[in-house]
Specification:
Elements (H helix, E strand, L loop, with lengths): L14 H8 L6 E2 L16 H13 L12 H12 L11 E7 H15 L5 E6 L5 H6 L4 E6 L1 E2 L4 E2 L1 H8 L6 E6 L12 H14 L2 E6 L13 H9 L3 E6 L11 E7 L3 H18 L6 H10 L2 H31 L8 H4 L4 E3 L4 H11 L1 E2 L5 E3 L8 H11 L1
Parallel strand pairs: 1-12, 3-4, 3-7, 7-8, 8-9
Antiparallel strand pairs: 2-10, 5-6, 9-10, 11-13
The protein binds (2S)-2-hydroxybutanedioic acid.
(2S)-2-hydroxybutanedioic acid binds next to loops.
């Protein structure tokens, strides 16, 4: 049977992890996978996580099954993190939150739910979008199309074209929006643009589906949720995929949630029951550990303060690296070519070099980034910033 299968190339993003590991050069620089790194190039476990884990170790009294919806305490707290304490004014019986294995589990189970709603639906994703969105969502059987999003000439959102495209959609369309820190471009919608998207969703009836993988990594926990909260307050139906990988640093614990907003309480109950049956059929129930940590942090005022401080430190480091990169490029004679880096948010930016130059950077200088020239800004630090900038100017 297996002879029918041929080998596939490594994943465009994850493949960079092993290529980097195998590179023997000491000066190599990893700007590939989207994982936060500190000044020393490490991805440490947050102190709030360590403390919550210690408590968990002492207090956890069973490893019995948790059920397809996961931990209800976690679900309630994550719902409030996304929509704010007052759920953006939405009646709580219209909202369901279900723990998932990471943001990917949330995206995939939501895609399966959309498929169950009927085969007329088209999912619209931004051009470009995260490289794994199309395989992850398309494998559920969804028809996928793209809407204009990033303009490489201006390194900003092509908002007029985006709005014109969304304005043509209707009730059988679902629109995937990056809640903040657009992956891969770093170019986000501003508040006025979000307001327009909300208005378009109300007028045309498309269903917004927000991928909120980086809440707290852009401008702040509340600031980064502006779009999703405006949508929740204004539209009848909304899907949100949220992740604790980045903001709690829980990458390998696979901790996420899907939030579903329905038009009425009875519809919410039906939608939740469908999602639970989908989950039972795919992975049965989510792993417990990461969600127990998050619930432990968010239910304790002291740990919550520690977490928001640690999150702020990660965000501030990324945003100051953005300014530093612009200043270094300018000082090295690149003019204003890279000024856009400071206007973008989150871990990623496109450098705007071509695939041949990306290969040259890898081969000649040991600098690893995705072929699209997406860099993980957090991989830059004071020991490699000059080497990195000089190498970019060399291949240009
Ligand atoms: C990324 O975009 O690099 C991260 O979200 C990691 C991944 O799974 O691709």
């Amino acid at each position: 049977m297996f002879e029918a299968l041929s080998s596939l190339p490594p994943d465009a993003i994850l493949g960079l992890m092993s290529a980097f590991r195998e590179d023997p050069r000491s000066e190599k620089v990893d700007l590939g996978v989207g994982i936060y790194k500190d000044e020393g190039g490490n991805t440490p476990v947050l102190e709030c996580v360590k403390r919550a884990e210690r408590r968990l170790l002492e207090q956890e009294d069973t490893k019995a099954y948790i059920g397809p919806a996961g931990d209800e305490g976690y679900n309630e707290r994550v719902g409030k993190l996304i929509l704010s304490g007052d759920l953006s004014g939405v009646a709580s019986d219209r909202v369901s939150v279900i723990q998932t294995p990471g943001g990917c589990g949330a995206l995939r189970s939501a895609a399966e739910l959309i498929v169950r709603c009927g085969d007329e639906t088209t999912l619209w994703v931004p051009d470009p979008t995260w490289a794994n969105h199309v395989p992850l969502l398309g494998d559920a059987g969804l028809k996928i199309r793209t809407y204009p999003y990033f303009d490489p000439r201006t390194s900003a959102v092509r908002f007029e074209e985006m709005a014109a495209c969304l304005g043509q959609l209707g009730r059988s369309d679902v629109v995937l929006l990056h809640g903040c820190c657009h992956n891969p471009s770093g170019a986000d919608l501003d508040r006025a643009q979000w307001d327009t998207v909300v208005e378009l969703a109300r007028r045309t009836g498309f269903t917004p589906f927000v991928d909120l993988a980086y809440q707290g990594f852009g401008d702040g926990l509340d600031e980064d949720a502006y779009g999703v909260r405006q949508l929740a307050a204004s539209v009848p139906e909304l899907i949100v995929a949220s992740s604790c990988s980045k903001n709690f640093g829980l990458y390998r614990e696979r901790t996420g949630a899907v939030l579903l907003l329905s038009e009425s309480a009875s519809q919410a109950a039906a939608v939740k029951s469908q999602l639970l049956s989908i989950i039972r059929g795919i992975y049965s129930m989510p792993p417990s550990h990461g969600a127990a940590i998050v619930a432990g942090i968010l239910s304790d005022a002291e740990l919550t303060t520690l977490w928001t401080d640690e999150l702020r430190a990660m965000r501030d480091r990324i945003n100051s690296l953005r300014s530093l990169l612009v200043a270094r490029f300018q000082a090295k004679g690149a003019g204003s070519r890279f000024d856009f880096i400071a206007r973008q948010r989150g871990m990623f930016s496109f450098l705007g070099v071509d695939e041949g130059q990306v290969s040259l950077l890898r081969e000649r200088h040991g600098i690893y980034m995705v072929d699209s020239s997406r860099i993980n800004v957090a991989g830059v630090n004071s020991s490699n910033i000059d080497y990195f900038c000089d190498a970019i100017l060399d291949v240009l």
